[in-house]
Amino acid sequence: MTWKQVWKKVQVPVWKEIQVPAWKEIQVPAWKKVQKPVWKEIQVPAWKEVQVPAWKKIWKPVWKEVQVPVWKEVQVPDWKKIWVPEWVKIGIPGEHNVGKDHHGWQYTSHGLWKKKLIWKPVWKKIWRTEKKQIWVSDKKLEWKAEWKQIWKTEKKQIWVSDKKLIWKEESVQVWVPQKKQIWVTQKKQVWKDEWKSKWVPVWKDVQVPAWKKVWKPVWEKVWVPIESHHDDDHHGYK
């Protein structure tokens, strides 16, 4: 075995600078229309409360003297029939026992009298209460119409100054972003062919002595059996 130098082509990475396009953001001036709020003085209608004279019909209470009928209690004479008790003497007809004496004799009597309570009608003068209609003075509340001057609140239209917000268009300069193409240096990895040598072991053929067994033909005398077709009884060798 020997060592042999062998050259082999290999790919090795290398960095190569290249120019590639790129976008760069830049600020460029531009005009932009904007709406700007502006206060504008305008005249607007408004309602103002004012006092105006007016006549109002009112009802005023008034006391009026009137004659009204009333009932008056009066005493009037009257006769009333009443019953009064009275004792009267009444004769008892016939004979009547009136008692005994100490000897036991009965006493009798004729023309006896007795008292009897009777009710006798009597007319008595009394005073009876009656209602008599009379006229008396009284006050009656009446409502009298009158006109009174009052002040009434009314709304009057007037014009007042007011501010109204309006939008006015203006052009203002603004900076807007814009993309611009530029070329920038960039490293790109590429593969480069290179020859690289190295020593590798190899086998080399050399002539060395060795013994080889070969087969060589030679003539040798041997005894072989021979078969005879005429002499069947002979089994020997010739």
UniProtKB/TrEMBL annotation:
Pfam hit, one: DUF4816
Signal peptide as annotated in the record: none
Source organism (scientific name): Ooceraea biroi
Name of the protein this chain belongs to: Periaxin
Domain of life assignment: Eukaryota
